Structures are given as structure tokens and as C-alpha cells.
Amino acid sequence: MRTRFILMLLIMLPFFASAQFNNQARAMHQQMNNQNQKWASERRASDQQWQMRNNMKSQTDKIQSAENKLAKEEKNKQKLEKKTAELNTDLKTNQDQLANLKNNSENNSDLQKNIEKSEQKIAKSEEKLNKSKAKLESSAKKIEDFKKEIETSKAEKEELTKKQEEEKKTKEAEKEKKQKEKEEKEQQKKAAKN
Q1: Which of 36, 102, 120, 125 is 20 to 30 A from 183, alpha carbon to alpha carbon?
Q2: Helices (H), the chain
Q3: Which residue, 49, 50, 65, is CA-closest to 153?
Q4: Rounded CA gap, 32 and 115, in Å?
Q5: All residues at 6 or more sequence positions from 104 whose CB lies less than 8 Å from its CB, including other chains
Q6: Whole-number Å distance between alpha carbons of 94 and 88
Q7: Which candidate, 156, 176, 150, places its Cα nearest to that of 52?
């Protein structure tokens, strides 16, 4: 009987040792999983913060770029307005000269040639004026587009800022919740010991 007991004990000893080892391994494995999850969540949070900062910088750069383009286009528009005004005065001057030539013409061939030249000048001036007006309209449209782009970018930036603030509040709430849970666990442990 004694030998059977010893034999049975020797046979079961590896099972007991294995069971105890499995509990330790399980506990160790659980700790490692918890640590890995903690690191993963920290990494995700860090990545989200980096992405938010990157998006904010991108929006700021986009706004700055659009404002620079807007300023450049406004200068261009002013130049075009000045050029258009000059072309308009030139056209009026040429038209006045043509009117004077026509009034003074007495079937003189020299005056007739001057009238034709003046008419050609007027045609060229009108063509230049029309081109200048088209460029001016195009410039005005570009300015409006840049203003809309700036407004859109600013709205997106505000949205990102709000989103970032909300995430900060959420993270702070989570930290407070974890801290409270930790304190409750410690109180429960103290109560269990007493």
C-alpha cells in the first residue's frame, strides 16, 4: 500500500508542478498582455496627436499659401486696373483724333491715310482694352476663389481645433476614471486585508 501511494505520488507530481507552473505562466502572460495593450494604446494616442498636429500645420500652411496667392493676385488686379484705365484713355484720345480728322477732311488723300491709320489704332486699342478687361475679370474671379479657399481652410482648422479639444477632454476623463478605479481597487484590497 505504501509503495502504491509513493508510486501514485510520483506519477501525479508532474501534474501538480505543471499546474502550478501554468498558473505562474498564465499570470505572467496576463501581465505581458496588459503591458502590451498599454503600450499599444499609448502609441495610438501618440500617433493621433502627431496626426492632429500634422493636420493643423497642413491647414495653417494651406491658409498661409492661399493668403499669399490672394495678395499677389490683388496686386496683379491693381496693375490690370491701372493698365485698363490707361488703355481706355488712349482709346478715347484716338477716337477724338479720328473725329477731328473726319471733321477736317476735304477729300485730301493724306488726311484719308491718317484717318485709316487712326481707325487701325482704335481697333488695336479696343482689342488691347478687351483683353485687359478679360484679364481683369479673370483676376477678380481668382481673388474670389482664393477668398473662398481661405474661408474653407479656416473653417476646417476650427473644426480640427474643436476635435482636438474634445479628444483632450475625453483623455482627461479616461485618466480620471482609471485613477478612480485604481483608488477603488486599493480601498477594496485594504478592506479585504482588514
Answers
A1: 36
A2: 2-104, 109-193
A3: 65
A4: 98
A5: 111
A6: 10
A7: 156
In tens, the pLDDT along 158-191 reads 998 898 888 889 888 988 988 898 888 888 888 8
pTM (2 decimals)? 0.62
Query: Minimal CA–CA distance to 123: which of 93, 80, 83, 94?
Result: 94
Q: Which three cell numbers stand for residue 26?
A: 498564465
Q: Give pLDDT tens digits for 113-143.
A: 877 888 898 899 899 989 999 999 999 999 9
Provide the grid cell at 183.
483608488
One-letter amino acid at 9 equals L
* CA quadruple 187, 189, 190, 194: dihedral sign: positive
- Measured over the CA atoms of residue 55, residue 60, residue 63 and residue 65, the dihedral's sign is negative
Contacts of 88 (CB under 8 A, 6+ apart): 129
